[in-house]
Amino acid sequence: MAQNFNLIDRYAQALYQATEASGEMKQVVDDINLCSQILLASPEYFTYLAAPVCELEMQKSVIQTLSKQYKFNNLIKNFLLMLCMNGRLNFLKQVLSRFIMLYQEAQDILVADVKSAAKLTENQIKKITKYLEKKLDKKILLNTAVDPKIMGGLIIKMNFMVIDNYISNKINKIKFNTEELIN
């Protein structure tokens, strides 16, 4: 597993350094986000494409077609072709994800995953983002999700930090403290 991470990291670092040297960071980041969306939209197809049974010519043809259709930057197109030729297309999703992490680190962007009991409004998202940016002195990219099990409040996860201010957690703490008193 550590070997795979090292491999993934080396590819992501190489792509990041080449992108930085080219001065085309914005376009490459946009292309990577688009490529990630394509992968998420058809995971079964990608699994087949990355499988050893899929011939190299087929892989290259698909990448050429996608690159042309979505107008991928040449750097991305050539990187995807290199992954094919090296038999590493199965690591594409992880490499793209690691690249985005490198980009976010360089831009001092912190990703925060926020769970709430109900869908947050745009105003609530802006307030949470503004609060976290002020508190942490970083740009915040907020990912939101709804989890009705938390009843109310929020769960905010950033890297290794968790802020859990939700009702079901508070009820569980009260229940635990009550049971402790009784026993």
Task: Report on this structure.
The protein is of the alpha+beta class and 183 residues long. It folds into 2 domains: 2-105, Orthogonal Bundle (Peroxidase, domain 1); 109-182, Glutaredoxin, CATH 3.40.30. The protein contains 8 helices and 4 strands; from the N terminus they run ααααααβαβββα. A 4-stranded mixed β-sheet has the order 2-1-3-4. Helix 7 links the parallel strand 1 (109-116) and strand 2 (139-146). It is elongated, with a radius of gyration of 21 Å. The termini are far apart. The mean pLDDT is 87.
Features:
Peroxidase, domain 1, alpha+beta, 183 residues, 2 domains, Glutaredoxin
Task: Determine Rg (CA atoms, Å).
Answer: 21 Å
CATH class bucket of the largest domain: Mainly Alpha
Q: Enumerate the spans where pLDDT stays under 50 for 5 or more consecutive residues.
A: none
Strands, total number: 4
Named at the architecture level, the CATH assignment of the largest domain is: Orthogonal Bundle
C-alpha end-to-end distance = 45 Å
